[in-house]
Design brief:
Oligomer: heterodimer
Mean pLDDT of chain A: 85
Number of strands of chain A: 0
Distance between the termini of chain A: 22 Å
CATH class of the largest domain in chain A: Mainly Alpha
Number of strands of chain B: 9
Radius of gyration of chain B: 34 Å
Order of helices and strands of chain A: HHHHHHHHHHHHHHH
Strand content of chain A: under 5%
Largest sheet of chain A: none
Helix content of chain B: 40-55%
Chain lengths: 355, 481
């Protein structure tokens, strides 16, 4: 099979996955009557606005006005198809969501005042990507460097200390470490801002703005790196030690290559595919886990928006967030498959890969 | 046949003995096991010592108004260097009655031994009296160790609807009562000749500070140490009139082993109750999801045809789901109790295990002894039970332990957002409350530190146990593979 053919097949499978998740989300929300309730309240709001805008209607007696209101609402219901049973409307909702049309938020507004869910998400998504991609990259770099050191002398003192650190740091939720850091660095020592994405009011100059954002990023980054670099180091160490067992390393050593050449030119290169996988998975994983962390850091990203939407019961935003997170996950898996296809020809030819 | 079985059992016993001796050599694993045992014992104790009604009461924030809010634990003085007051309940005063020319008096005194560096956070005084006709006059005064006497509050009893005898009771919040404040101003005026605006008076400073003209609004004071007296004096017009109750709660600034939250709740109860809940959720979810994962993985590896293909696709589908966002979405709709949360978490937790179990099964299936068994006419069931299961079971035990921390974290995240079990206190819920109440930016460190440490300790116990099991199990798999 050609690489493009392989790619096309995987894209179809992953798109199907995505549609299935979306369909399940809509069905669950619809099955519990939540979609209808949201649509109904949106209609009520709109009809109220229409009636208030019309002075003739405002002067009508109470009973008449209610009657007019009911007719108007019925018209609206027909217009958006709410009179049909939910199951018949599913394809429409599905299509809307797939084209990133998530409708209007019930309560939440973007900084520019827009109530379109799409605008809300577009505003916060880059912030989440900025923070958690940076965090994952720093953790990976620090972790790989330390992992190399650990693999130099397995079961040596440094290896043991780092292994213990990895177990300890893996047993702490990121957001709790964040809360502690805010208490220590933000509250007690007051050396870093205790939360937020920029100062209020935000600096107007672009350079100052960027510096301000970076300043606010330091504390969350410390937390992210603190809980993840130990795990990285331990994983890289184990991968390297596994690789050392293999024949081509024996050959490289037999050729008389220096230990540095063996380590960097052969062993590290062989561990590249799993490391890339881990990196991408950790980025997307940390974004999923960002929901609580962003609340803790008051970082106005995807996670904070999700938590706000839950607190305000803003259903369209919740559905959209669920979908966008699924989309990010599936997109990362697609990237992974492409990379794997490029790195490992056995994958795309369908030959069995022996572990 | 029987002989063979006995031989096999012996072999099994030997493997188990070998496993136990290997495990014993792992200090980390033993530490994990000891910690888990302690948590289990603690859970049993908590469920017995604090029955479910206590939990329901814990959730009702109105029950806790007598406790000082956001009070650190008593051992906080280790950090602040200051001796902070604990809450004291004062009652059991002895009446001293006398009468002069048809007026009947009764005095009662409550003693307060006070040797802390800061005044208490509030004093709540309860006074009750009964009277026949004319309303008696009630006066409350405060006598400091130095001997100065301050008139705190004076009132005439009010008639109750029923009676005679009428009953009267009054609950006085000394620090915030406006009359008490103006009495403090009067005291300072008469003693030092200084005018202090009532709005800027700190009652605590006047009552507990070493006296000086500027004590009323000083930012910090030296507390007079010694025995304080709170005295109630009643002036009545009938021999049957009397004080029926006189007690005071001196609210401290520290509370118990784990402090209180913003509603004055004793965090000890919530945090202790979090232990059985966390263990239950972590362990049951892990057993359930590892069970599902093993079943799906082994079957999809064993039956490689259509069944295997379908199961593999399903596994891949679940593997790619964003677990936490979806769980939050579902929890938002269902508001799950613990008993719904456990299967829900398992539903999203099994695919990783299924993938590994599948690859182990594929490996074992290619072993020569499996082929030999098949050639001898062994059934699929026989091969599954006799050859595949012994290889995958140890792996699954290690994974059950290794997966517990993840589920505890996930449940904590959902509870943090207030979407967890509506009644049972969980560490995540307590931390979520802390975050929502500004504990991190208000410096309520105990509210953040202690529940998190509990999460950490339980998580690391299972991680240590799981790692130790994994280390024993993995080489065995490799050796045979």
């Amino acid at each position: 099979m050609s690489f493009l053919g392989y790619l096309a097949k995987r894209t179809v499978v992953l798109t199907a996955t995505l549609i299935l998740v979306l369909l399940a989300t809509i069905m669950v929300a619809g099955g519990f009557g939540i979609v209808d309730r949201v649509a109904e309240s949106a209609i009520r709001q709109e009809v109220n606005m229409m009636m208030r805008a019309n002075p003739n209607l405002a002067r009508l007696p109470e009973a008449e006005r209610l009657k007019v209101m009911e007719t108007l609402m019925e018209e609206q219901r027909k217009a958006i198809g709410l009179d049909k049973p939910f199951i018949e409307r599913v394809p429409k909702y599905l299509f809307q969501a797939l084209s990133w049309d998530f409708g209007k938020a019930l309560y939440l507004r973007s900084a520019s005042g827009s109530s379109l869910v799409r605008d809300l998400i577009a505003e916060v998504l880059p912030r989440t990507i900025l923070l958690f991609t940076t965090g994952a990259l720093i953790s990976a770099i620090v972790g790989i460097a330390l992992g190399l050191l650990m693999a130099r002398r397995p079961l040596g003192l440094f290896d043991k200390i780092m292994t213990a650190f990895a177990v300890v740091s893996n047993s702490m939720p990121l957001w709790w470490v964040g809360m502690l850091l805010i208490l220590v660095l933000g509250f007690t020592l007051k050396v870093l801002p205790p939360g937020g994405y920029v100062s209020v009011p935000a600096p107007t100059e672009p350079v100052a703005y960027v510096l301000d954002v970076l300043h606010h990023m330091i504390l969350p980054l410390i937390a992210v790196v603190l809980v993840s670099f130990g795990g990285w180091a331990y994983t890289v160490r184990s991968l390297l030690l596994d690789t050392f067992q293999q024949d081509f390393i024996l050959v490289a050593r037999a050729k008389g290559l220096s230990e540095n050449d063996v380590m960097y030119k052969h062993a590290l290169r062989a561990t590249a595919p799993p490391i890339i996988t881990l990196l991408l998975l950790s980025i997307v994983g940390s974004m999923g886990g960002a929901i609580i962390s962003e609340v803790v850091f008051n970082w106005a990203g995807m996670g904070r928006l999700f938590a706000d939407a839950v607190a305000f019961q803003d259903v369209p935003v919740i559905i959209a967030e669920t979908y966008v997170f699924s989309f990010l996950y599936v997109a990362v898996f697609l990237v992974l498959e492409v990379l794997y296809g490029l790195l490992d020809p056995r994958v795309r030819t369908g030959a069995s890969v022996q572990g | 046949m029987a002989k063979e079985q006995r031989k096999e059992r012996k072999q099994g016993n030997r493997e188990l003995a070998e496993f136990i001796s290997q495990f014993r050599q792992s200090k980390a694993g033993m530490l994990g096991l000891v910690l888990i045992t302690m948590f289990v014992l603690l859970s049993v104790y908590v469920v017995v010592a604090y029955p479910y009604e206590e939990v329901v009461k814990w959730n009702d924030v109105r029950e806790w108004s007598d406790n000082p809010p956001t009070a650190p634990p008593f051992w906080a003085k280790v950090f602040s260097g200051k001796s902070l007051p604990e809450t004291q309940v004062l009652n059991g005063s002895i009446a001293r009655r006398y009468n002069v020319e048809g007026i009947y008096f009764e005095d009662r005194v409550l003693d307060l031994q006070y040797s802390y560096d800061e005044p208490p956070s509030e004093i709540i005084v309860d006074i009750g009296s009964t009277f026949q006709g004319s309303a008696p006059l009630i006066e409350l005064s405060w006598i400091k160790p130095s001997g100065s006497t301050i008139m705190v509050f004076r009132t005439a009893a009010e008639r109750s609807i029923e009676g005679p005898p009428y009953s009267y009771s009054h609950e006085l919040y000394i620090y915030i009562d406006q009359e008490v404040k103006s009495n403090m101003a009067n005291y300072l005026l008469s003693k030092y000749g200084v005018h202090v605006p009532v709005s800027s008076i700190s009652v605590a400073n006047v009552l507990f500070g070493k006296e000086s003209p500027s004590v009323a609004n000083a930012s910090s004071i030296d507390v007079e140490k010694g025995i304080y007296q709170l005295k109630v004096h009643i002036q009545a017009y009938d021999p049957k009139d009397a004080i029926t109750g006189f007690s005071a709660v001196v609210k401290g600034k520290v509370w118990g082993w784990m402090g209180t939250d913003i509603w004055g709740r004793d965090l000890l109860i919530g945090i202790l109750w979090g232990t059985p809940v966390a263990l239950l959720i972590g362990a049951l979810t892990s057993v359930l999801s590892v069970g599902i994962g093993m079943a799906v993985g082994v079957i999809s590896g064993f039956y490689e045809g259509r069944t295997g293909e379908v199961l593999e696709r399903i596994t891949d589908f679940f593997y790619m789901l964003p677990v936490l966002p979806l769980l939050i979405f579902v929890s938002f709709i269902l508001r799950p109790s613990v008993w719904v949360m456990i299967p829900l978490l398992s539903l999203f937790g099994w695919p990783g295990i299924a993938k590994t179990a599948r690859s182990i099964t594929l490996q074992v299936k290619q072993e020569t002894y499996v082929e030999a068994a098949r050639a001898l006419g062994a059934s699929n069931l026989w091969i599954l039970v006799r050859h595949i299961a012994p290889q995958t079971l140890p792996f699954s035990f290690a994974n059950i332990a290794l997966n517990v921390p993840g589920y505890i974290f996930t449940e904590a995240s959902i509870s943090f957002l207030g979407l967890g079990d509506p009644i049972l206190p969980t560490w995540g819920k307590i931390l979520g409350d802390a975050q929502a109440s500004g504990a991190t930016i208000g410096g309520y460190w105990w509210w953040v530190l202690i529940p998190g440490v509990m999460i950490f300790l339980v998580a690391i116990s299972f991680a240590l146990l799981g790692n130790a099991l994994d280390r024993i199990v993995t080489p065995r798999l490799r050796r045979r593979a």
